[in-house]
Amino acid sequence: MAPPAKMGSIDRPGTEKFERSASVIAKKKKGKYSKDKKLNANLRKIDHQYKEALRSAAGTDLLLTEDVGFLEADSAMEKTFKFKQNDIEEVLDEQTVNKKFELNLPKLGPYQIDYSRNGRDLLLGGIKGHVASIDWRKGSMNCELFLNETVHAVKYLHNNQYFAVAQKKYTYIYDNQGTELHRLKQHVDSTLLDFLPYHFLLTTAGNTGFLKYHDVSTGQLVSELRTKLGPTQALKQNPWNAVMHLGHSNGTVSLWAPNMSTPLAKILSARGPITDLAIDREGKYMVVSGADKSMKVWDLRKLKELDHYYTPTPAKSLDISDTGLISVSWGPHITVWKDIFKSKQSEPYMNHLIPSSKVERAKFVPFEDILGVGHSKGFSSLVIPGAGEANYDALEINPYESVKQRQQGEVRSLMNKLSPDTISLDPNVIGTVDKRASSIRLKPGQITEISDMSEKDQDKLNKMEIRPDVSAKNSALRRHLRKKTQNVIDQRRLRIERNLKLEKELRVKKYRQDRGLPEEKDLLGPALARFK
Amino acid sequence: MDEKDLKQSKKSTTKNDIVLNDDDDVWESESSPDEDEDEDDESEDDEEVDEDEDDEEDIFKNDSEDIEDEDGINLLTTVSKLQSSLKKPEKERRKLVSEATDENEFNLPTNGNKLSLNDMLAAVDSSISKDAILIDDDSKALSAPLPKRIQQRHDRAVAYEITKEEISKWEDTVQQNRQAEVLKFPLNPTVKHNDAATTFKSDNVPTTELEKKINDVLKESALIDERKEATFEEIAVAKLSLEDMQKRTNELRLMRELMFRDEKRARRIKKIKSKQFHKIKKKERLRAQELVEGSDLESDGEDHDMKRAQERMSLKHKTQSNWAKTMIKSGMSKDASSRAELEEMLRQGEKLRSKQLGHEEGDQSDDDVSDIEKEYNNDINNDSIKSKLGKGVLAMDFMKNAEERNKQENLKQLEELRKLEMDGDLQAFEENSGIVNITKNQGRRVYTPSSSGMKDDITQLNEELREEIEDDESKNLTNKLSKKFNIISSTVTSTTTNSTTTKDTIKSVQSEVDQGEEINPWLTENSEPIKKSHKITTVDQDSSKLSKAAAKIAKKASKKHGKKTGDDELIDIDETLKVLTTHQGQDSENEEEGEGISQDDSKMFKQKELIKEAFAGDDVVQEFEIEKKRVARDEDDKHEDVTLPGWGDWAGGSKKNKKRKVILKKIDGVVQQDKRKDKHLKNVIINEKVNKKNLKYQSSEVPFPFESREQYERSLRMPVGQEWTSRETHQKLTMPRIITKQGTVIDPLKAPF
Asked: How sure is the predictor about B716, in pLDDT bands with cuts at 50, 70 and 90?
């Protein structure tokens, strides 16, 4: 035990875990960084602030009132994996027992599943076209769709109001009521979906071998990356740096950022195709399972293999919980492993069997001790003690948020949206000094050129703008209206028509101006002009 | 004489001065010296001149007179003399100019004087007149004034110095404000507390008119003396030094403690229900009282005599007195007060009578004891009579036995009491230690440590006392004295310490006992069952099959336990993942094979082999290696041969040029092969191309105030956002540097001097 800190001193126990590593500055003397007096004082002030912040952060530990509790064996003879779900159910409180449920859906399976970011809603996607969004704690259905089309993957976007479904040909976006909002026709034949919540990017990959990033806040396709490695087998994001990890059929895992046409790194993990992969919350570890029955644990900081396990049959689905529990499922089996990143484990933490079924996807519920399993006969949720993060940050993700909070949170996250360009293997480089030699460094002009070019590209993409200087025939708006089906009148069409009208007026005005003709007088005056 | 003269002269001069100042006619007298020169003056003036001349003469006269007679001094004359004697500046007088000469441009009026050269030179030559300036031997030429800009420069320099000094006074303030993290305007706001509701006013300063009036009235009538109470307290405390104060408080504390203890003791004793005990106590008390009274008798005999005389006078002790008789007669005995007086009288009479008989008050109780004794004595005598009587229930056997028992008990008690009487309280301490226990009603037991501790204390104390007393009796006088002193000091002075020490002694005794035994009861209890569990069974040829089998199993189990391989046995093979560390590799597998491990492992091995076989076709590993090499090569620096064929050769020459210079041009690649990050990483290719889109989020140079990259990055280390820091830190770091309170006038900085 550490000795208690003195009263009034800046030290407080438990500050170590809040430390942020930084390159150490060689001090010439005690408390001296530089000859410059002012800079020195400034640096010392920064140091002091840092220490204060650490102390303050350590103080907030008091507020983390909840604790993670795992299953514990009484003696060496007893094994935690021997406990069946029924055994656990006997000792559980009623609230938790209610969270454990099963959906028997034998006809349209196997089922893909997804949970919303706060863990409140469950999205089920049966391969034969059954999609359902459920508030699983209440047991109320948000919407249910029978698409009569193959459903490959389902994914909630930033909250439970929208979800994307990878269907037979295209990917669609539906709202909470099940209304089809968008058909993403750029995303052809995608089988895997993921969503980067801080960048508002929907990522898809599939049989085409392309990885596509789609900004769901602006509706633009940010980038299409050709993997050149055939159909993608697995797609997961690294929550720490928003890099996408793709598993391929040649046993490699490639790491992608939207602003690089080549993968950031490639890792050979299995001899056969990759079946699934999972990355832990802190972005430190990756677990990869292959068709060669291997399951490998990788340290993503060093890109080194930590451990090597074998599964009896190739693992179909992997997931890592917030507390570091790993669920591995193959066939009808699901095993949960504990402390796998710390040391080599010889036995699982828990296991479960869903008889005469095949597990399709298993996912831990955020902030809950529950593992949701979508399988060929429906869905079942299992109680895994210690799987959920006990303390949530209500400002970040609130599992108990009200409608108002959800709306405000949406606006806030949109304002804090990160540019796709910021994604890189090490996110800490943002704001730092470029380490490369100055000779290779881009000149300031070149950097602006790059950024300018991207703006130009954006302009190109943004064709639907009012341009009074083009002839009426060549107007983008007009062409768009012409190409659209004539009989569909929706919001967008109305808007375009309005814009077209405005464009026409502007064109007339411009014409008169060019000829030197006097301007038409506004009869009603500016105040009433809007009622025209 | 001379001194006197001096004084006088001084006196006179001072007087003259005064007169001079006051004189109104100065003008006329002053003008007099001019008259000589003016010819055209009036006759009056002439007369004045004469008078003046007379005055001058008079001065001398007066002087002589002064010398001659000291008494008579003509002030007026002296004044006038002095006035004349003082040289006065010549004053111009208005003149009437009447020129008789012709007016001519060359004929200037001369006023009768002729202009000489000397007069003209006088204005020039300094040797002639002092006012002359043009020809001055001593004077030097004035230096030419400095050029304007140089003069200005000097002015500026001086002005700078002055302003610098002025400004430097502000330096500290400005520095402080510059270094301050947050400036709140107004800078030093006067804090206004509205404490009317929250606090009491300590000083009763009257605010309202009514209050003032009342206060005045009170003061006038001297009902309020503010100093009275305060000073009294202050004086009492102020006179005491700190040590005295401490001493006093300690004393008070001790007193309180003792009182508390006494109270506690009294309560305890009060609870004791033993009659015997109370009897003894009472006796003790009475004896003590008696002693006191006796001393009284001895000490102040006079007083006693006086009392007796008074009694005799009043005859209060007799009912035969006249007063008493009348009282009884008139039936006043029914009146409460008179009745009380009568009773008092009778009581005193009784007292006196007993004294006369030679008894003392305390003997009454003695009699009681002796009464019982007597009774028993009588009983012994009467036994025969009783037995003879032998009738009814009392004659029955059990009654007799009971009576006998009772009697024996009483006798025992009597014996004790007697002993007690004989040799002080010595014996009492022996047995009475159990007094507390002899409560007849055991209704409620007290388990509180205090009571039990108290009991212990008492027993301990009694024991000690008894021992001491015994010792005293046995040993010589000196020892006795010293011991006694010890006892007193240990018991009486500090009861607190005594109690603690006794407790300690008990504890120590217990611990000694424990050490003697060397067995902790808790430990023994625990250890016993463990011992029981370790049964040693011997398996012979004779023993049954079952026992043999059990022994075998146990042996195996123990072996396994020793090896610590038992855990593996417990895992269900079907339910767990097969494990193989990467580090083990082929060697470990071979080893395991050599040992002949369980079937499962061999199965595993086979499976692995099978997998290898299954994926043998597409050799992913090799492909990956090739790719890695290719990438490394592609991204490496390249050398291009830029030698031109035939350059430097003689055309047509068949001679071979042996020395061929190869000109290589280096083309920088992404990264050199040796410096690749993935050089030592197995199965990993890291892309080292620069992500140009990321570059705009990086700084190309270290920003200004920082000198090195480390310093700059250190400043970026701590995030400011509320998601990453505590609320406190976030607010502190995002606080604006200048905060102004709206609606307040912000004054300019005030000079701190």
From this structure: confident
Same domain? A184 vs A123:
yes
Distance from CA of B693 to the nearest CA of A (A): 6
Interface test with B, best of A250, A310, A326 (most B CBs within 10 A): A310
Alpha carbons B133 and B441: distance in angstroms, whole number: 138
The verdict on ipTM greater than 0.95 is no
What is the end-to-end Cα distance of chain A in Å, rounded?
79
Q: Indicate the number of domains in chain A.
A: 3
pLDDT digit string, tens, across residues B594-627: 333 334 445 555 666 777 666 666 688 889 999 9
Q: How far is B690 from chain A (nearest CA, A)?
A: 9
Confirm if A272 and A251 have CB atoms less than 8 A apart.
yes
Q: Do residues A375 and A257 both lie within one domain?
A: yes
Across the interface, do B611 and A271 touch by the CB < 8 Å criterion? yes
Q: Residue range B703-731: average pLDDT?
A: 86
What are the pLDDT digits (tens) for B70-126? 455 566 666 666 666 665 555 666 766 665 666 677 776 666 677 788 877 777 776
Measured between alpha carbons, how far is B284 from B67 in angstroms, rounded to an integer? 118
Where among A12, A42, A57 does a domain terminate?
A: A57
Whether A247 and A394 share a structural domain: yes
For residues A173 and A249, membership in a common domain is answered with yes
Candidates A419, A434, A436, A451, partner chain B, best to mutate (most B CBs within 10 A): A434
Closest by Cβ to A447, choosing from B682, B685, B696: B696
Q: How far is CA B473 from the centre of its chain?
A: 58
3-state secondary structure B519-584: CCHHHHHHHHHHHHHCCCCCCCCCCCHHHHHHHHHHHHHHHHHHHCCHHHHHCCCCCCCEECCCCC
CB A259 within 8 A of CB A420: yes
Look at B689 and A271 and tell me if their CB atoms are within 8 Å: no
Asked if the model's pLDDT at residue A507 lies above 60, the reply is yes
* pTM (predicted TM-score): 0.54
Determine the average pLDDT of the residues in A93-110: 92
On chain B, the residues whose CB falls within 8 A of the CB of A222 are none
Give a yes or no: residue A444 inside a domain.
Answer: no
Chains A and B: how many Cβ contacts under 8 Å? 229
For A30, the domain range is: 24-57
**Looking at the structure, do residues A396 and A458 belong to the same domain, yes or no?**
no
The answer to the question of residue A4 being in a domain is no
String of DSSP letters for B204-249: ----SHHHHHHHHHHHHTT---HHHHHHHHHHHHHTS-HHHHHHHH
A35-49, A212-226, A484-498, B377-391: least confident range: B377-391
- Supply B122's token pair: 């006088």
pLDDT of residue B138: 67
Among A49-58, A475-484, B392-401, top mean pLDDT goes to: A49-58
Structure tokens at B464: 């000690």
Question: Is residue A138 in some structural domain?
Answer: yes
Adjacent-strand bridge partners of A125: A112, A131
Is the confidence at residue A149, as pLDDT, over 60? yes
B560, exposed or middle or buried, with CB in 10 Å at 0-12, 13-18, 19+? Answer: middle
Given pLDDT bands bounded at 50, 70 and 90, which one contains residue B665? Answer: confident
Q: Are A118 and A49 part of one and the same domain?
A: no
Spatial separation of the C-alpha atoms in residues B578 and B584, rounded to whole Å: 14
| Element at A478 (helix H, strand E) | helix A476-483
Question: Which residues of A fall within a CB distance of 8 Å from B725?
Answer: 53, 56-57
Q: How high is the pLDDT of residue B620? A: 86
As a whole number of angstroms, the longest Cα–Cα distance in chain B is 197
The residue type at B752: P
Last residue of a domain, one of A407, A436, A463: A407
Asked whether residue A348 falls in the same domain as residue A491, the answer is: no
Instruction: Note whether A364 and A487 are same-domain residues.
Output: no
Q: Is A5 within a domain?
A: no
